């Protein structure tokens, strides 16, 4: 059955909403408040809301078409299946518009510069104010803050999860100020965001408590000392330590930093309780660094999975040899 809406925000014009005439004991579904319906609908995947929920009755269709269902926009799984940047950007734009600027969370994969700029700066159309009954209409000028319309943009956003996106440093530097209230940020595998973009996030987003900045592994085996993949680069670690001091949780898998960068993170991020540095092969954990890491509530060491895989491989080999003998 076709849905009246597509995930990219388009409408299948051939589909009509199903009218429900039967009386339902205890009341009619279409009589429920849209906000109550939205509390239920947001537990469903975004694609399910658009393809199935919107077909049930007119009130459900109107609820899905309104802002209540889109305070949290999570389309990451759909994006992975779609895997087309232009379609993903279009879908994000449509859903941000539908939220009317109330969206608090966005989770998408392979986001582009255009959609990033849009979510940071879009705000609902201006609301007209009737001044005819005011004794002093000019007073409204002093009651409204400067650039009040611009305050309705991406500053409502609290959680931004855009792994493996195509967003560039230039866009981050230009629009990070509009995302000042973000507390959770996932820019893992965003190869076009470098230390410059990371610094912009750190300087503008002072509410950050969680950061994921995992990167692709340079190679699957432990790099040889002195090889290109083992060269230490503390730049990003130092930026995080200097600009994101309120972090509670930090993931930096396959980072290029060394002991100096880790020491800065542990020193400046005093609230840090979760640290994942798997694959950070440049670390030597000299002095008391390892002891400080182990004092955290959750700590995943650079070699944790590597060592576990080796143990599992050895044990499986032993068991297979025993079974043969």
TrEMBL record:
Domain F-box: 34-75
Entry superkingdom: Eukaryota
Alphabetized Pfam families for the sequence: F-box-like
Protein name: F-box domain-containing protein
Lineage of origin: Eukaryota, Viridiplantae, Streptophyta, Embryophyta, Tracheophyta
